[in-house]
Amino acid sequence: MLGQFLSHPPVELGPIGPELVLAGAGVLVLLGGALVRRRQPRALLLASLAGLTGAAVVSVSLWRWRGHATVLGGMVQADRFAVVARLILLGVAALALVLGHHYFERLGEERPEFYPLVLFTTLGMTLITAAADLILVFLALEILSLSLYVLTALSRRLAAVEGSMKYFLLGAFSSAFFLYGVAMAYGATGSTHLSTIARSLAGQTGNQALALAAVALLVIGFGFKVAAVPFHMWTPDVYQGAPTAVTAYMSAATKVAAFAAFLRVLMTSFQPLTWDWTPIVWGLAVATMIVGSVLAIAQTDIKRMLAYSSIAHAGFVLVGVSAATQEGIQSALFYLLAYAATILGAFGVVMLASGRGEEHTSLGSYAGLCRRSPLLAGLMSLFLLSMAGIPPTAGFIAKVNVFRAAVDAGHWGVALVGVLASVVAAFFYIRVMVLMYMQEPLEDVEPDPSIVPRLAVAVPALLTLLFGVFPGLVLGLLERASVLRW
Amino acid sequence: MLSEYLPIVVLAALALAFAVASLVVSSLLRPHRPTPAKLAPYECGIEPQRLPKGERFPVKFYVLAMLFIVFDVETIFLFPWAVGFRRLGLFGLVEMVVFIGLVFVAYLYVWREGGLDWNEPVRRSGEREQVGEALRAG
Amino acid sequence: MAADWIVFWVCAPISIGSAIAMLLQRNAVHAALFLIVNLFTVAVLYLVLGAPFLFAVQIIVYAGAIMVLFLFVIMLLGVDREERLVERLRGQRTAAILLGLGVVGEVVFAIRAGVGFSTRAPAGFGAANGGGNPQALGRLLFRAYFLPFEVTSILLMVAAVAAMVLARRRERPVASAERRAQEPIEPSEPSEPSEPREEEPVG
């Protein structure tokens, strides 16, 4: 009797240590913002940063995890892939917190919910990178999506509310697709564990037709989250409408988290069907690269332009995914790292250069930025060069790696389209640089002179240069992290 | 299998029968002598210009309904836990304490942020209406 | 089995009828009430299929909480709002009819081909539900799936915060005057009847 009362399944909490730390920090900061009479946004910021640091320390310690590969009833995978993805996400969250703190302070708005929501979003994102069961993937996806809808609407501008609304409606739609895919996978194989699905499909015991339907629906669900064409419609409006600091966060972090889960699901549970899903991913990659690059040319608002550019970048990551090899995973991870640093920095510069809130985000207001703030113009140029894939930046190495992985896997056609798309994309990146350096200022916007957010933007700039010049610093680590087993 | 639910069906039928019977009996027994004064919408004061049709609820109800759903979903999880409590043992208890504790944090937050207060001066209502209007207009 | 049969043939026509009635109602509140009837009868069908937990969830969450939310939203927008029935998208009605016919054809085909239809419970259904369906579900949820269960509480917490942040009217006094000065949303001119409550006639 007592034995039954005390019995419990094995509980190894180590591999979800980062999430436990984040949850604790999130709860503390949430209650701190609500219960303390005199609110101190700075205290909330510091507490959140401490939580992120703690989570990062725990993540690093998981690099040498010696316990079971999957823990907590097969729900969580304790591998190095998750460690790397988590570290990228935590870093992005820390920088975004600093930027967002400054954004709302300068706007004179008090948003104590910003800090816990970023922590909870990060929790969802880190959890999704380690989730080894489709149900947990779905729950983590919902946590991060729901928090992002709220973060988008955090400033009460009409555009923000509208963007949040669109994001919510389309996001709910995509969640339904994803859930339908999970149901199909369960119907095909009788399990939602990634490894069990893989074993069942490899052993030909599962229903292959249903499994293919599951792959298609899951790809649609993830496609929405990473903003792949034709599931990208929400991106420009949301990125433009959201507070710029939030845009910086979600453009960088959401893509990392969603691609990590995408890679894990495709490369483990549907690995036996690789030949069936690679053409789908090719198609997505080609469409995303072309549409993202071409539509970005026509934009007149810097935030919209960067939004379309982020769509195009999703296409380049998909090229790495379509290789379906360890090299492909490694190149995709490196691309995500380079992209996260670049886009976070670029939106950070936009935040600092556009006055209070989103007053001056048209491309015209970037004319002559180098006169008003040489530092911001320089940083922006570096990020734009990295996005265009011009050496010596991380973006160059990332693009080369992705294309090489695709060619090695025999997909030279996709790589060719990718090269052409990067040439097209280079045009509009360089156009902004021409505006900044070669034209007279049109508007008299005084850029934000604060030091701390500038430091937060300088960190990704340094990383962009560092990984561009010495990619070997991380490529070795990424290679060891690019093993996804089932 | 379904026979277990027979008492519920009987109870529902009795409740329905009671409601219908009360209405029917009262309509048969009550006196019915209408006069113009009685049929007027209000027995005193002036005749209203138009009937108060389509009154709009304040948005507070909506917040409350959403919070209700959150805590309703919590209740749903209590159901399979309660029926299997003995078998789930101490581990189940700890799980449920953690779960309820986390949802309680949400409750604390809502309470401290004034989500449960009713008689608070409504501020900036003009702006909220505007946002809603503009959203509806597209 | 006879009881199942009777219950099914009582509930299925009601559920279909209430669904059609819901679509044909112009009054949003009446449509919502028909939806409640529909949700209830579908819940009973879950019971017939041997899923009492789903039955409880359907009634407590859908017929209860979600419908309350629906009704509040209808009230929030105003009961007397007549929806214009002219479609905004061209050809929407035709497309809807075609797709609806497609679904009907699909179902007929599936029934004729016997895909996914069965008169018996799937293999292992009895074993999986040993000791009662909610109990079996509880064992699974609180043993094998306890991490997703705990994660759900975080999701609920975020949902509560989301509801508060998105629908809150209260603004902190801090800097709100300063904000209004540079708010992109201009103060409204009083063209709309401001507060409907004021129009209430005094008896």
Please provide a brief summary of the model.
The complex is a heterotrimer of chains A (486), B (138) and C (203). Helices cover 75% and strands 1% of the residues of chain A. Chain A has 486 residues and is mostly helical.
Describe what this molecule looks like in 3D.
The complex is a heterotrimer of chains A (about 475), B (about 140) and C (about 200). By secondary structure, chain A is mainly α. Chain A has 20 helices and 2 strands. Chain A has one domain (about 15-480). In chain A, β1 (about 70) and β2 (about 75) form a beta hairpin. The model of chain A has no long low-confidence stretch (mean pLDDT about 90). In chain B, α3 (about 60-85) runs antiparallel to α4. The longest helix of chain B is centred in the C-terminal third of the chain and has 28 residues, at about 85-110. The N and C termini of chain B lie far apart (about 50 Å). Mean pLDDT of chain B is about 80; it is low at about 120-135. Among the domains of chain C are: about 1-80, NADH-ubiquinone/plastoquinone oxidoreductase chain 6, subunit NuoJ (Four Helix Bundle (Hemerythrin (Met), subunit A)), CATH 1.20.120.1200; about 130-165, no CATH class. Chain C is about 65% helix and about 0% strand. Chain C has 8 helices and no strands. Chain C is globular and about 55 Å long.
Task: Provide key terms for this protein.
heterotrimer; B: about 140 residues; Methane Monooxygenase Hydroxylase, Chain G, domain 1; 5 helices; about 65% helix; C: about 200 residues; mainly alpha; Four Helix Bundle (Hemerythrin (Met), subunit A); disordered C terminus
Helix content of chain B: 55-70%
The helical percent of chain A reads over 70%
The major beta sheet of chain B can be summarized as: none
| Tally of alpha and pi helices of chain B | 5
CA radius of gyration of chain A is 22 Å
Shape of chain A: globular
What best-fitting shape of chain B do the alpha-carbon axes yield? flat
Major protein interface:
B-C, 69 and 65 residues
Task: Note poorly predicted spans of chain A.
Answer: none
Number of strands of chain A: 2
CATH architecture of chain B: Up-down Bundle
Number of domains of chain B: 1
Spatial strand arrangement across the major sheet of chain A: 1-2
